[in-house]
Amino acid sequence: MIYYSLFTYSLMCAAIALGTLSFVRLFFGTFLQPFTRGVISLFAFILSIIPIHHISFSMLLYSMFDTPSFLLFFLCLFSIVRTFVNQIGFTISYRGFLFLAILWLLFAGNAFGIFDWAYGPLGYKILLISCVIAICYCIDRICAVFMLMAFSLWLPFANTLDLYNAVFDSNVALFGWLMQSMPLFKNNFHVALLKPKIK
Q1: Which residues cross the membrane (predicted)?
Q2: Whole-prediction pTM value?
Q3: How confident is the model at residue 132 (pLDDT cuts 50, 70, 90)?
Q4: Between 122-139 and 141-154, two packed helices, what is the crossing angle to 10 degrees?
Q5: Domain assignments of the chain as residue spans, ordered by start
Q6: Whole-angstrom Cα distance, residue 46 to residue 40?
Protein backbone atom coordinates (compact mmCIF):
# COMPACT_ATOMS: atom_id res chain seq x y z
CA MET A 1 0.00 0.00 0.00
CA ILE A 2 3.03 2.30 0.08
CA TYR A 3 2.93 3.07 -3.65
CA TYR A 4 -0.81 3.66 -3.46
CA SER A 5 -0.27 6.05 -0.54
CA LEU A 6 2.43 8.06 -2.31
CA PHE A 7 0.36 8.23 -5.50
CA THR A 8 -2.78 9.33 -3.62
CA TYR A 9 -0.96 12.02 -1.66
CA SER A 10 0.55 13.33 -4.89
CA LEU A 11 -2.95 13.42 -6.38
CA MET A 12 -4.05 15.35 -3.30
CA CYS A 13 -1.34 17.95 -3.87
CA ALA A 14 -2.41 18.35 -7.50
CA ALA A 15 -6.08 18.59 -6.50
CA ILE A 16 -5.32 21.24 -3.86
CA ALA A 17 -3.33 23.24 -6.42
CA LEU A 18 -6.22 23.13 -8.91
CA GLY A 19 -8.75 23.84 -6.17
CA THR A 20 -6.83 26.91 -5.06
CA LEU A 21 -6.62 28.14 -8.64
CA SER A 22 -10.36 27.64 -9.16
CA PHE A 23 -11.12 30.00 -6.30
CA VAL A 24 -9.36 32.75 -8.25
CA ARG A 25 -12.47 32.95 -10.39
CA LEU A 26 -14.45 34.12 -7.37
CA PHE A 27 -12.33 37.25 -7.13
CA PHE A 28 -11.18 37.95 -10.69
CA GLY A 29 -14.02 36.42 -12.74
CA THR A 30 -11.64 34.47 -14.96
CA PHE A 31 -9.89 31.14 -14.98
CA LEU A 32 -6.67 29.82 -16.47
CA GLN A 33 -6.67 27.97 -19.77
CA PRO A 34 -6.89 24.15 -19.63
CA PHE A 35 -3.29 23.75 -20.82
CA THR A 36 -2.01 26.05 -18.07
CA ARG A 37 -4.07 24.23 -15.45
CA GLY A 38 -2.74 20.91 -16.72
CA VAL A 39 0.87 22.08 -16.50
CA ILE A 40 0.37 23.42 -12.97
CA SER A 41 -1.36 20.24 -11.76
CA LEU A 42 1.33 18.04 -13.36
CA PHE A 43 4.04 20.20 -11.80
CA ALA A 44 2.41 19.90 -8.36
CA PHE A 45 2.09 16.12 -8.79
CA ILE A 46 5.72 15.64 -9.86
CA LEU A 47 7.10 18.06 -7.28
CA SER A 48 5.29 16.24 -4.47
CA ILE A 49 6.58 12.81 -5.49
CA ILE A 50 10.24 13.66 -6.27
CA PRO A 51 12.49 13.12 -3.23
CA ILE A 52 14.40 16.16 -1.98
CA HIS A 53 17.12 15.26 0.52
CA HIS A 54 15.92 11.62 0.41
CA ILE A 55 12.28 12.44 1.24
CA SER A 56 9.42 13.75 -0.88
CA PHE A 57 6.40 15.72 0.23
CA SER A 58 4.15 12.72 -0.39
CA MET A 59 6.46 10.61 1.81
CA LEU A 60 6.20 13.26 4.52
CA LEU A 61 2.40 13.16 4.31
CA TYR A 62 2.52 9.36 4.46
CA SER A 63 4.66 9.47 7.59
CA MET A 64 2.19 11.90 9.19
CA PHE A 65 -1.17 10.43 8.15
CA ASP A 66 -0.32 6.81 7.25
CA THR A 67 -2.31 5.06 4.49
CA PRO A 68 -4.87 7.40 2.91
CA SER A 69 -8.47 6.34 2.60
CA PHE A 70 -10.07 5.28 -0.65
CA LEU A 71 -12.45 8.21 -0.18
CA LEU A 72 -9.49 10.59 -0.50
CA PHE A 73 -8.36 8.83 -3.69
CA PHE A 74 -11.78 9.11 -5.35
CA LEU A 75 -12.29 12.73 -4.28
CA CYS A 76 -8.91 13.82 -5.65
CA LEU A 77 -9.25 11.84 -8.87
CA PHE A 78 -12.74 13.11 -9.71
CA SER A 79 -11.85 16.67 -8.71
CA ILE A 80 -8.89 16.70 -11.10
CA VAL A 81 -10.90 15.18 -13.96
CA ARG A 82 -13.81 17.56 -13.35
CA THR A 83 -11.48 20.54 -13.67
CA PHE A 84 -10.89 19.68 -17.32
CA VAL A 85 -14.29 18.21 -18.27
CA ASN A 86 -17.13 20.71 -18.18
CA GLN A 87 -19.78 17.99 -18.49
CA ILE A 88 -18.93 16.69 -15.00
CA GLY A 89 -20.71 19.15 -12.74
CA PHE A 90 -21.28 17.24 -9.50
CA THR A 91 -19.80 18.47 -6.24
CA ILE A 92 -20.01 17.57 -2.58
CA SER A 93 -21.94 20.33 -0.84
CA TYR A 94 -20.92 22.05 2.36
CA ARG A 95 -23.44 19.83 4.18
CA GLY A 96 -21.58 16.74 2.98
CA PHE A 97 -18.21 18.05 4.14
CA LEU A 98 -19.71 19.14 7.47
CA PHE A 99 -21.15 15.64 7.91
CA LEU A 100 -17.74 14.10 7.16
CA ALA A 101 -16.01 16.45 9.60
CA ILE A 102 -18.43 15.67 12.44
CA LEU A 103 -18.23 11.96 11.69
CA TRP A 104 -14.44 12.06 11.67
CA LEU A 105 -14.42 13.86 15.04
CA LEU A 106 -16.64 11.13 16.48
CA PHE A 107 -14.34 8.39 15.21
CA ALA A 108 -11.29 10.34 16.39
CA GLY A 109 -12.86 10.52 19.85
CA ASN A 110 -13.40 6.78 19.63
CA ALA A 111 -9.70 6.25 18.84
CA PHE A 112 -8.63 8.33 21.85
CA GLY A 113 -10.90 6.40 24.19
CA ILE A 114 -13.55 9.10 24.61
CA PHE A 115 -16.10 6.77 23.03
CA ASP A 116 -16.02 3.03 22.47
CA TRP A 117 -19.20 2.65 20.44
CA ALA A 118 -17.35 1.85 17.20
CA TYR A 119 -15.42 -1.15 18.52
CA GLY A 120 -16.65 -4.58 17.54
CA PRO A 121 -16.27 -7.42 15.04
CA LEU A 122 -16.05 -6.84 11.31
CA GLY A 123 -19.76 -7.51 10.79
CA TYR A 124 -20.61 -4.79 13.29
CA LYS A 125 -18.32 -2.32 11.51
CA ILE A 126 -19.90 -3.11 8.14
CA LEU A 127 -23.37 -2.57 9.59
CA LEU A 128 -22.26 0.71 11.16
CA ILE A 129 -20.70 2.01 7.94
CA SER A 130 -23.81 0.99 5.98
CA CYS A 131 -25.97 3.03 8.35
CA VAL A 132 -23.58 5.98 8.05
CA ILE A 133 -23.75 5.85 4.24
CA ALA A 134 -27.56 5.67 4.38
CA ILE A 135 -27.69 8.73 6.65
CA CYS A 136 -25.21 10.54 4.41
CA TYR A 137 -27.42 9.83 1.38
CA CYS A 138 -30.19 11.83 3.02
CA ILE A 139 -27.77 14.74 3.52
CA ASP A 140 -25.64 14.69 0.37
CA ARG A 141 -26.08 12.08 -2.35
CA ILE A 142 -22.72 12.73 -4.01
CA CYS A 143 -20.87 12.30 -0.74
CA ALA A 144 -22.75 9.06 -0.08
CA VAL A 145 -21.84 7.73 -3.53
CA PHE A 146 -18.15 8.46 -2.89
CA MET A 147 -18.36 6.70 0.48
CA LEU A 148 -20.07 3.71 -1.15
CA MET A 149 -17.34 3.54 -3.80
CA ALA A 150 -14.68 3.62 -1.07
CA PHE A 151 -16.52 0.89 0.81
CA SER A 152 -16.76 -1.27 -2.33
CA LEU A 153 -13.06 -0.83 -3.08
CA TRP A 154 -12.22 -1.82 0.50
CA LEU A 155 -13.87 -5.27 0.18
CA PRO A 156 -10.88 -6.99 -1.54
CA PHE A 157 -8.62 -5.62 1.23
CA ALA A 158 -10.92 -6.52 4.12
CA ASN A 159 -8.30 -8.74 5.77
CA THR A 160 -5.45 -6.21 5.57
CA LEU A 161 -7.01 -2.74 5.87
CA ASP A 162 -9.27 -1.43 8.61
CA LEU A 163 -12.70 -0.42 7.34
CA TYR A 164 -12.72 2.92 9.14
CA ASN A 165 -9.34 3.88 7.71
CA ALA A 166 -10.55 2.97 4.21
CA VAL A 167 -13.71 5.08 4.34
CA PHE A 168 -12.77 8.01 6.59
CA ASP A 169 -9.85 10.37 6.28
CA SER A 170 -8.82 13.42 8.27
CA ASN A 171 -7.61 15.16 5.09
CA VAL A 172 -11.03 14.80 3.47
CA ALA A 173 -12.85 15.85 6.63
CA LEU A 174 -10.76 18.98 7.17
CA PHE A 175 -9.50 19.99 3.73
CA GLY A 176 -11.80 18.23 1.26
CA TRP A 177 -13.49 21.50 0.28
CA LEU A 178 -10.11 22.80 -0.91
CA MET A 179 -9.29 19.66 -2.90
CA GLN A 180 -12.65 19.88 -4.65
CA SER A 181 -12.16 22.60 -7.23
CA MET A 182 -15.01 24.89 -8.16
CA PRO A 183 -16.92 23.93 -11.34
CA LEU A 184 -16.22 25.80 -14.55
CA PHE A 185 -19.81 26.67 -15.45
CA LYS A 186 -20.23 30.35 -16.30
CA ASN A 187 -23.85 30.37 -15.18
CA ASN A 188 -24.85 29.92 -11.54
CA PHE A 189 -21.24 29.64 -10.44
CA HIS A 190 -22.14 30.87 -6.95
CA VAL A 191 -24.60 27.99 -6.57
CA ALA A 192 -21.67 25.57 -6.34
CA LEU A 193 -20.73 27.10 -3.01
CA LEU A 194 -24.12 26.23 -1.52
CA LYS A 195 -25.32 22.98 -3.07
CA PRO A 196 -24.21 20.33 -5.56
CA LYS A 197 -24.88 20.78 -9.25
CA ILE A 198 -25.89 17.57 -11.02
CA LYS A 199 -26.29 17.41 -14.78
Answers
A1: 6-28, 40-62, 68-85, 97-120, 126-151, 163-180
A2: 0.80
A3: very high
A4: 160
A5: 2-193
A6: 10
